[in-house]
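for ur thesis appendix - Inner membrane protein YccF. copy paste whatever u need, i formatted it the way the template wanted (i think)
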Amino acid sequence: MRTIGNILWFLLGGVFMGLFWWIAGLFCIISIICIPWAKSCFVIGTFTFFPFGKEAVKRSELSFKEDVGTGFLGMIGNVVWFVFAGVWLAIGHLTSAVACFVTIIGIPFGIQHIKLAVISLAPIGQTIIKKY
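the 3d part is after this line
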C-alpha cells in the first residue's frame, strides 16, 4: 500500500513540492551563508518525493541528546528559515492540501501535505526515519 501511495503521490503533485524543496536547497548553497539550511532542504525534499512509510522526527528525540541543530543555534536557524523560505513552502503545501481535499481519494495526500507544511516551518533539527 505504501508503494502505491508513494507512486500516486509522486505523479499527482509530490514531484513539484519536492523540486521546490530542492530549489530552495540550491539557493541556500548559492548564497554560501545558508549552506547549513541546504542539507535540511535536500533531506526533506527527498522525503517529499516519497513520504509514505516514513516520518519526520526531532533528532534530539531520536538520539536523546542535543546537537547544533537541535539547540539554541537550531532555533535561531529555524527563525531565519521561517522568514525567508519556510512560510513560502508551507503556503505551497497548504495550497496543495486544499486541492487534494477536494476529492475523496486525495484526503490522505492532503493530510500528508499538512504534515509537510508543519515541517517546512522549522526543518532544522529534523530527520527522516522509516515507519514500521
